[in-house]
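Example record

One chain of 150 residues, shown exactly as stored in the release files.
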Amino acid sequence: MHLNPQVQKPVYEILCASGTAREGAGGALHLEGSGGGRLSLLPPLDYAPFVYLMTRSYLILTDSGGIQEEVPALGKPVLVMREVTERPEGVWAGTVKLVGTTREIILAEVKDLLENPDHYQAMAQAKNPYGDGCASQRIVVILDQQLRAI
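Predicted structure tokens for this chain:
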């Protein structure tokens, strides 16, 4: 979670009011909801642990443009809590969905992905519009061919 206290305050107020909270290691706050759900609020992480946690997640909710680009490579649905995005390719490909900022709509979209395996799989298996991760191998082949031709 962002370190800005103006961001943290409403998050803590909303989430802590709906369950019990306990502090964890490294500044984490673990919340246990009445329905048995779990949520951990973490301070900003270094890149590698952050990517590890995203790989272990079922779905991603974000307003970050960078995360919209990276998560499709992990095969996770991305719900973007914005009205518009400067990265529409993910929306067009079906791996990202704009859900806006209305609580009821966000909850309905999360519920849909949790309860509808077909919708989940359609987003999780959509083709990554930002590439297939093989660009560096292609560049090596082209450079090798060009250097051999000299």
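Notes: The chain is about 45% helix and 15% strand.
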